[in-house]
Amino acid sequence: MTTVKDIAKAAEVSIGTVSRALNNAKGMTEETRERILAIAKRLNYQPNLQARGLVAAGRMPSGS
């Protein structure tokens, strides 16, 4: 399974830069974003939905 770390290594950028590109966040040129997305596609990157669910759960109010 390809990880964000694998993409960062292949693209020679930080993990944070890959994360921003994959989440379509601001803070990089369109050229960099497109290069990272192309590498992610080439490496058959698939987001880990379970991990994403855990992160989202951590953002929810606890109800206390």
Walk me through this protein's architecture.
The chain has 64 residues and is mainly α. It has helices at 4-11, 15-22, 30-42, 49-59. The chain contains 4 helices and no strands. The protein is globular and about 35 Å long. 62% of the residues lie in helices and 0% in strands.
Secondary structure layout:
Elements: H1 4-11, H2 15-22, H3 30-42, H4 49-59
Helix pairs in contact: 1-2, 1-3, 2-3
Write a short abstract of this structure:
With 64 residues, the chain is mostly helical. The chain is 62% helix and 0% strand.
Helix content: 55-70%
Largest sheet: none
Helix/strand class: mainly alpha
Report the uncertain regions: none
The succession of helices and strands, N to C, reads HHHH
